[in-house]
Amino acid sequence: MILAVGLDLLGFLDHLNAGVAQLVARNGSASFPRHLPKWGIWLAAAVFAFGLASAILGSPGPARRVILWFTAIVVVAAWAPVLSLAAHAPDIAAPWIATLWSGVCAMVYSTNHRMACDETPPPSDDPR
Length: 128
Fold this sequence. Notes:
This protein is mostly helical. The chain has helices spanning about 1-10, 10-25, 40-55, 60-75, 80-85, 95-110. It has one domain (about 1-20, about 35-115).
């Protein structure tokens, strides 16, 4: 989240949002009559960033973690054409960067630390 806020303060997110808008706009003209509220964009960024980190750190196995990370990035990126079809400006840069970086940090942490969900329980002596 801090990375996304910093990039927003530097103006980088505006350039990224403009590029995404041109990609999904009809005939390359990026004029959208409506915009999502800023608080909604940042709320989505926080939910995806913290939710993805929690899901990655709670999932056993590196393959599942990578699938969660990739799926979250694709879901956030898929908002752009949907917002464009609804005549909203596709301002997805903040949620996408927050999700991407949250996944990177959670993946690095999970590969360098022993996770409780990765440990197999000892075999039980009870035959039930």
